[in-house]
Amino acid sequence: PVTFKPLPDHELQKLGDEQLIAYIRDGRNAGELGPARRALMFLVYGYEHDVKRSLSIKVPRNVVDDLAHDALVRATAAALSSGVMTRDMRCLLDFAIRRSAASTIARILG
């Protein structure tokens, strides 16, 4: 049996990336989807500003929000997939940002 204890926001804010990822997985495995989604929000939104700033240097301003969303979704999905917990979230985001920027630039240049 999975033992899962939902944490309040002030406790979630103190957790590092790997701890949040483990908490999200544990919550999903225990069927506690609400608390798991809440922790996911802390994980994703903790990086949103940095991702948008990084993309704004690489791509036209009008596509930054969409590409930031895509990069965050890709990196988070990779972090939550089985066996990836030890990988650094920032590395996953950097890869997703570079990939999004490169494909957008290639599309623009046709």
Give a description of the structure:
The protein is mainly alpha-helical and 110 residues long. Helix content is 72%, strand content 0%. α2 runs antiparallel to α3 and α4 packs across α5. The longest helix is centred in the C-terminal third of the chain and has 21 residues. The N and C termini lie far apart (54 Å).
Features:
single chain; 110 residues; mainly alpha; 6 helices
Topology:
Layout: H1 9-12, H2 17-29, H3 33-45, H4 48-58, H5 64-80, H6 89-109
Helix pairs in contact: 2-3, 4-5, 4-6, 5-6
What is the H-and-E element order? HHHHHH
Average pLDDT score: 90
| Biggest sheet details | none
The overall strand count is 0
- Portion of residues in beta strands equals under 5%
Number of helices: 6
Q: Note the gap between the termini.
A: 54 Å
Which range best describes the helical content: under 10%, 10-25%, 25-40%, 40-55%, 55-70% or over 70%?
Answer: over 70%
Low-confidence stretches: none
The geometry reads as: elongated
Which value, in Å, is the CA radius of gyration? Answer: 15 Å
Helix and strand content put the structural class at mainly alpha
